[in-house]
Design brief:
Number of domains: 2
Strand order of the largest sheet: 4-3-2-1-5
Shape: rod-shaped
Order of helices and strands: HHEEEEE
Largest sheet: 5 strands, antiparallel
Number of helices: 2
Number of strands: 5
């Protein structure tokens, strides 16, 4: 049984002893680079664009959650757009950076409370 190294030597070298084509020698590295780009870079950039669009679409009364696990409703967005005030309870509000918001959490809360079952 022939090893992978033996197969690579057969395909890379010319039987007459002439040097192999430089493109054929670089082909595995080019293939790895293309696979890395397609499998890692493209999905990452797609997710980044989607996250930027979500952060830009935030508005008052949206329920969101932060990277630290805090769930709240947006009460105010600062004038420069870098800070968001979250209402986490009836009397509790906190300010967080807009970038620390991970995503939206379900639907916006209703204004009237439903009776317990």
């Amino acid at each position: 049984m022939m090893s992978w190294l033996g197969l690579m030597v057969i395909f890379a070298a010319d039987p007459a002893g002439a040097p192999a084509d430089p493109f054929l020698q670089m082909a595995p590295f080019i293939l790895i680079a293309v696979m890395f780009f397609v499998m890692i870079v493209l999905p990452k950039s797609k997710d980044s664009k989607q996250r930027k669009a979500q952060l830009a679409a935030m508005k008052k009364n949206d329920r969101v959650y932060t990277s630290s696990g805090i769930i709240g409703t947006i009460a105010n967005i600062s004038a420069d757009g870098k800070e968001v005030t979250l209402k986490v309870d009836d009397n509790a509000k906190i300010r967080v950076f807009r970038q620390s918001i991970e995503g939206f959490y379900g639907d916006a809360p209703t204004t009237e409370a439903s009776p317990p079952a």
